[in-house]
Amino acid sequence: MKKVLSVFLAALMAASLAACSAPSPAATSASKTSAAAPSANQPVTITISNWLEAEEATSAIFKELLNDFMAKNPDIKVESQAIPFNQYKDQVLIAGTSGNAADVIMGNSTMMCAFNGANILAELGSLASKEAIDDIYPGYLSGTTYDGKIKALSWAPHPIAMYYNKELFTKAGLDPEKAPATWDDMTAAAKAISALGKDAAGNTLYGLGLPTGKVAHTGTVLNGILYSFGGQFVDKSGKVALVNDANVEALTYLKNMANAKVIPAGLEIKDLRGLFAAGQVGIIFDGDMGRNAFRSSSGLDKEFDKKMGVAIIPAGKTGRSETVYTEHQLGVFAQSKHKEAAVKLVEYLIGKDAMLKYHASNAVLSARKSIATLPEMNEDAFMAVFNKQSETASPLPATNALFDNAMNEMTKAEERIVVNGEDVRTVLTETEKTIKTMYGQ
Amino acid sequence: MYFLPPLCNTEEAFCMHRQKHKINWFMILLLVPAVALLTITILIPVAVVIVMSLFRYNMLDLAHVRWNSFANYRAVFGSSEFFATFGRTLAYVAGTVSLQFLLGFSVALMLNSRALRFKKLFRGLLFLPWTIPSLVVAVTWMFIFQPQYGIVNYLFRLGDYSVLGSPSTAMLGVIVAAVWKQMPLMMIMLLSGLQTVPENLKEAAQMDGATGWQKFATITIPCVMPVIKTVTLTSIVSNFQMFVLFFTMTGGGPVRATTTLPLYTYETAFSGFDLGKGAAIGVCWLAFLVVFSTVYNKVLSAKEVEY
User: Fold this and answer.
1) Is the predicted pLDDT of residue A24 greater than 50, yes or no?
2) pLDDT reported for residue B14
3) Mutual orientation of helices A403-418 and A109-117 as an angle, nearest 10°?
4) Whether B271 contacts A438, CB under 8 Å
5) Do residues B160 and B147 lie in contact, with contact meaning Cβ atoms separated by under 8 Å?
6) How far apart are CA A102 and CA A333, in angstroms?
């Protein structure tokens, strides 16, 4: 009896193993069906992976844009694959490498370089219209070009600019209508604000809110700070080159400012947004989406706009406003059976009608010169500043599939310097070695 | 010489033998779903991970998976980061389980006391943290430890000191959150164990002049040892796999002070795209837990008694 039972159970386990490994006939036929060319009368169905539909702030407008596209293109049906942001890169990567990604793939700079590294993006140079490609700002186009090939089109760029608290400026004896124009002016203003000490509720006031810890985004923002000091992440040949005097000066600046309690140490941008909205930080670097975050965190909604000013990043050692941008990009799956329809959707989404609607709803910018300069896209001083910032914003040096990991290493380096007080040059040397090993350099 | 029982003949003996060894198909049928589920959800994934750990399995190049002669294991054991992470994990597990056990047992003893009134109310209230999802616990404790407006800084007059932002206290912050969440289960299990300790034994010991501590050490502890063994081992294994609290509260920082094995595996596999090396880390940790559980069970089983 025991032997029979054991044999039976072992056979059952083996059968389960076999059942799990074999593809199901339904799945096989479904994939064959989707690969089959549609008949002349049936609309083509394409899919678009995104996180916009999974987020409250963007879900409605995104669905509206897709509906508008389908109304104008009755022969194309679009299905949205909404994936939460935190899981997006991993899920799309796994889907893409196993041949199941959506026809249109949305991503940001760090994600797209990973997707490009996995060879799941189609080359758009020959698929997209010349008119659309030539209309994109060179800085934004370079951020979607890998080894000379255009792998995505820039959709909603978010250059990082400077916000400042007018009330704290007034209290510190500074002119609230005059934003600092140089890095030295900004440092002096920040120190004056932190010298105020505490607010009425006993909370510490900080002069400058720069992220110095926790997440990879901190590392991406650090790139902009390095550029302001004349530093770099990679050299002209694309090799990681962190150990230089400019980078040392930039990180020493952050360390000294944190030690002097002008910058709160070890925080990420989410923490800093909360502090800025609460009136505890005088100056913060953030993208255009920061305004919505401040409005909702403060509970004041649009009333908060009266308390803040916005300006381009002050000029640093290079004499110009240096910053980086993050952006949403749209690419096409390399194995898509409907590339033409997919490119049509991409061009619609970055086109005038969609961008004007998206801008009206969420104040996004356009990467296209003809659209970014329209009066509707510059309806107030806020948008005018960000469009101005676009002119000097540099793409992230996201040329390697492991760029996100590299930015995590940069964040750890910042934490070691700012939080742990370690020697700047030593940390930079070790970080450069780690990233070079990661990149295979 | 074998003698059959007086009332049995050869044919009857043969029938009894057949009945004894008759296949109970109904019993087998009842076992099928459980075995299938265990196979699909545990055995197969474990087997897949072990196989993955022996191959070059990069998420960026899934078309070229190949045997790499244990290179993943060489990379894992050749990296000081693995040992540092293992050490941090052991520190976290030891701290969390010890604190949970001490607190849980103390509370269980109080709840088991005849002198305490409103036991059911206290039991219900004390069990509440266990019902809260780990993600919510993590976010709640992030707010509690928030330097600018968190209650911990206010109560302990810490000023702007960031418990979760400082390498020396970040791990302690996560341990506190973990103990708060998991202590109720430890308490309930130990309470149920305490309620099975025979009262007559304690009375007899009392009459023999045993002190409270002697009764506790020689009667109570041995009687509840099976429960202690089970509940602490479960806690050790589950805390070894703690991901949500670390990922949400600290992200493994600051400066890797709270990067434990689950986070390290996640970073290696999904951020570093190296599924093979991630699988190798998982296999090392599985092997450690299997050996540890075996030894732990043996040691504590020796201390069990049955009265």
Assistant:
1) no
2) 59
3) 130
4) no
5) yes
6) 7
pLDDT-based confidence at residue A173 (cuts at 50, 70, 90)? very high
The count of structural domains within chain B is 1
Q: Does B30 touch chain A (CB under 8 A)?
A: no
Query: In angstroms, what separates the C-alpha of A262 from chain B's closest C-alpha?
Result: 13
- Give residue-wise pLDDT tens across range B160-207: 788 998 889 999 999 999 999 999 999 999 999 999 888 888 888 888
Asked if residues A129 and A347 have their Cβ atoms less than 8 Å apart, the reply is: yes
For residue A79, what pLDDT band results from cuts at 50, 70 and 90? very high
* Helix residue ranges, H only, B113-211: 119-131, 134-144, 151-155, 170-194, 199-207
Q: Tell if the CB–CB gap between A5 and B28 is shorter than 8 Å.
A: yes
Residue B94 within a domain: yes
Q: Residue B219 is encoded by which pair of tokens?
A: 């009667």
What residues form DSSP beta bridges with A165? A308
Report the CATH fold assignment for A40-157+326-393. D-Maltodextrin-Binding Protein; domain 2 (3.40.190)
Domain harbouring B290, CATH code: 1.10.3720.10
| CB contact set of B194 (below 8 Å; sequence gap of 6+) | B108, B109, B112, B220, B224
Neighbours of B203 (CB within 10 A): 11
pLDDT of residue A64: 96
Q: Is B253–A4 a contact, with Cβ atoms under 8 angstroms apart?
A: no
Whole-number average pLDDT of chain B: 88
The chain B residue lying nearest A272, using CA atoms, is B148
The rounded distance, in Å, linking the Cα atoms of B59 and A400 is 14
User: What is the model's pLDDT at position A368?
Assistant: 93
Q: What is the pTM of this model?
A: 0.77
CA distance B118 to chain A (A): 41
CB-nearest partner of A13 from B35, B60, B251: B35
Chain B residue with minimum CA distance to A117: B60
CA distance A230 to A199: 35
Close Cβ partners of B281 (under 8 Å, ≥ 6 residues apart): B76, B82, B261, B264, B265, B268
Give the nearest chain A residue to B22 (CA atoms): A1
Q: Using one digit for the tens of pLDDT, what is the confidence trace for A187-244?
A: 999 999 999 999 888 888 999 999 998 888 899 999 999 999 999 999 988 899 999 9
A98·B36 Cβ contact <8 A? no
> Would you state the CATH architecture of domain A161-324+398-439?
3-Layer(aba) Sandwich (3.40)
pLDDT digits (tens, 9 = 90+) for A347-358: 999 999 999 999
Q: Which helix (H) or strand (E) holds B270?
A: none
Contact assignment for B165 to A213 by CB distance below 8 Å: yes
Question: Distance between CA atoms of B63 and A98, rounded to whole angstroms?
Answer: 9
**Residue in A58, A14, A103 with CA at minimum distance from that of residue A289:** A58
Question: From A274, which residue of chain B is nearest by alpha-carbon distance?
Answer: B148
Please give, rounded to a whole number of angstroms, the shortest distance from the CA of A131 to a CA of chain B: 33
pLDDT value for B18:
58
B29 and chain A in contact, CB less than 8 A: no
The answer to the question of residue B190 being in a domain is yes
List alpha helices for A130-241, DSSP H.
130-135, 138-142, 166-171, 183-194, 216-228
Q: pLDDT-based confidence at A30, cuts 50/70/90?
A: very low
Average pLDDT over residues B99-108: 95
Q: What is the mean pLDDT of chain A?
A: 89
As a whole number of angstroms, the distance between CA A204 and CA A194 comes to 8
- For B78, the token pair is 């050749």
